[in-house]
Amino acid sequence: MNDKIILLDEMGNEKEFQILATFGLDEMDYAVLLPLNEISELTYILRIEYDDKNEPILVGIDDEEELEDVIEVYEEIRKERLQ
To answer: What is the pTM of this model?
Structure first.
């Protein structure tokens, strides 16, 4: 997957990300993003929600248990891709 997306940070600055993966878990959808043009290799995992026009919105995951489950699933996806 080589899709890219531009998001606004807290200061309103545009940041470009590569979408590494999207997947579903427990009736929710998630996106894994890698920031481009940054030295950091941190990946971000965000929940995909939908507004009243059915447009996708990326939302941070505040629940630690949900985040741990999502990270575990993404790690399994990465392992499968490497095989």
So the answer is: 0.83
Q: Is pLDDT larger for residue 39 or for residue 77?
A: 77
Reduce the DSSP state of residue 24 to 3 states and report it: strand
**To 10 degrees, the CA torsion angle through 73, 76, 77, 83?**
180
Q: Tokens 């575990």 belong to which residue?
A: 72
Amino acid making up residue 64 = E
Strand blocks (E) in the chain: 4-8, 14-25, 28-35, 44-50, 56-59
Amino acid symbol at 66: E
C-alpha 71/C-alpha 76 separation (Å) is 9
Q: Where are the alpha helices (DSSP H) in 1-83?
A: 64-82
pLDDT tens, 39-66? 777 889 999 999 999 999 999 999 999 9
